[in-house]
Amino acid sequence: MYEGVKYMKKLDFRSDTVTLPTQYMLQKMTKTELGDDVYGDDATVNKLQNLAAEIMGKEAGLFVPTGTMGNLLAVMSHTRPGQEAILEEDCHIYLYEVAGMARIAGVQAKPIKGTNGEMRAVDIENAIRNENIHFPETGLICLENTHNMAGGMAISLDNMKEIYDVAKKNHIPLHLDGARIFNAATYLGVDVKEIAQYADSIMFCLSKGLGAPVGSMLVGSKRFIDNARKYRKMLGGGMRQVGVIAAAGIVALEEMVAGLKNDHDNARLLAEKLNEIGGISIDINKVHTNIINVDFSNFGLNASQLISKFAEKGLLAGPRNDKAVRFVTHKDVTREDVFQAVNIIKEIID
Fold first, then answer.
1. Measuring CA to CA, which residue among 102, 90, 98, 91 is closest to residue 136?
2. Which of 41, 76, 152, 190 has an alpha carbon 20 to 30 Å from 301's alpha carbon atom?
3. What is residue 246's DSSP assignment?
4. Are 76 and 221 contained in the same domain?
5. How many other C-beta atoms can be found within 10 angstroms of the C-beta atom of residue 242?
6. Average pLDDT, consecutive stretches of 10 residues, N- to C-terminus, the chain (350 residues)
């Protein structure tokens, strides 16, 4: 990378959060204009926020430390305590964000069953609360694209539009957890604005497939972002000379999006090669982006046991559930790494 920084190559398929910054990112981080962001004086952060908003077709943007904070800020900014948010039953906000929407935002979740991460618009409309003294008011609808638990599958534009139309008809804001929205746009073959148009606010990550070391973005209307900025301060997210990491975020948006197609190709290659192993069956049609959930239940070991055995051979992966292991490709996984991973998996299950 550069003098003083050394990285050891690993077969790390646990997540695209393990990506390391590029040499160009590190260089930009050491040579960037800084200021106090709480005062709005950090020129690099301001540039990143304006760039993110422009890319998504929104009025304003806010740099946040994590996607979880970004999603929580969206819930807090769109709702008031005592309301309810409709979301898919396996979405990240509901399963993996420590019940922040309930404890901190004071908002109750209304989970809806989906298919491959997609909720039906009619089910959402039926879940919207009627006026009743006993009911919470529906204050928000949340979507996730790509959908993590569905193995990185992309939600279709038609489905998003149908749900957005329901939201607008009922005067309910719609927030998109777009942690991997650029992966979705790459798979769907559209500009990311085509996805973002069907959401009032979007959170997306810089520190996953785009390779930045830290940070996510929240975008929406100027009024929404003004509210979110104040809540960010409340949660301890008011950062100072944060341009040192925002600089990497600018590089991520300007330089790294095109490389996502290679990550998708490597994920598909991994799925195809694993399908050649007896006892493994992966639906290739569901390998949309860079995540694969692999069911190993035919081999008599649970996911945790297999992951430990993989790690002994230098292959890192993560559990999806007791039976399935999740593999995630990213910019630091090469085609050769995929073949090596397949060989390790064959050796273990043999």
1. 102
2. 152
3. H
4. yes
5. 24
6. 46 96 95 91 97 98 98 98 98 97 98 97 98 97 97 98 98 98 98 98 97 97 98 95 96 97 98 94 95 90 91 94 94 96 92
Do 114 and 90 meet the contact criterion of CB atoms below 8 Å apart?
yes
- Is 314:344 a contact under the CB 8 Å cutoff? yes
Distances (CA, A) of 305 to 114, 159, 299, 317, 321: 30, 38, 11, 12, 12
pLDDT of res. 8: 43
- Residue 299 confidence (pLDDT): 86
Query: Are residues 238 and 267 part of one domain?
Result: no
Structure tokens at 199: 């959401």
Q: Give me the domain span that covers residue 323.
A: 259-349
The answer to whether residues 183 and 250 belong to one domain is yes
Placement of tokens 């593999």 in the chain: 327
What's the CA gap between 175 and 170, in Å, rounded?
Answer: 15
Residue ending a domain, choose from 188, 223, 255: 255
Same domain, 73 and 124: yes
**Half-sphere exposure of residue 117, counting CA atoms within 13 Å on the CB side?**
25
Task: List C-alpha distances in Å: 299 to 74, 141, 176.
Answer: 43, 40, 38
Backbone phi, psi, residue 42, to 5°? -90, 105
Predicted TM-score of the model (pTM): 0.94
The distance from CA 338 to its chain's CA centroid, rounded to whole angstroms, is 23
- 283/308 same-domain check: yes
* The pLDDT value given to residue 9: 57
Residue 343 counted as domain residue: yes
